[in-house]
Amino acid sequence: MYRSVRCYIIHCRECQRGKSVPKKPPGLLIPIPPASVPFQRVGIDLLGRFPRSTKGNKWIIVCTDYLSRFTVTKALPTAEAEEVAKFITEEIVLKHGAPRTILTDRGKVFESKLVTELGQLCSSKHRKMTGYYPQTNGLT
């Protein structure tokens, strides 16, 4: 009897039209806490693929400090993990110190083993933002 009732309901057009669509309850939004010292929390993002420049660069990497809003940018020839790790090491860690928290999107470059290990060596916590929602890392 259960099967016959279920089969009837599945094939009944009026039953299907009147059925409510299950909705997932909205998740809790957690604001990013403010930083207390410069370069404690930074956001990093890649921009591009731009037309090749005279120096052969197609990408721009941007790093923004969440306290002072100081921004460091650099043009890159490729968007590979080696280039990103080199930028983080030379332009951020060696000049301003290792950040406690690095905020990025879930791009392939930032998920790579090299960038993850660099963050572990610097004792930096890597927070990955929601994909296709740029407002989360909007400061960068």
TrEMBL record:
GO terms for molecular function: nucleic acid binding. One of its GO terms (biological process) is DNA integration. PROSITE patterns: INTEGRASE. This is Transposon Ty3-I Gag-Pol polyprotein. Residues 34-140 form the Integrase catalytic domain. SUPFAM superfamilies: Ribonuclease H-like. InterPro entries: Integrase_cat-core (IPR001584), Retrovirus_Pol_polyprotein (IPR050951), RNaseH-like_sf (IPR012337), RNaseH_sf (IPR036397).
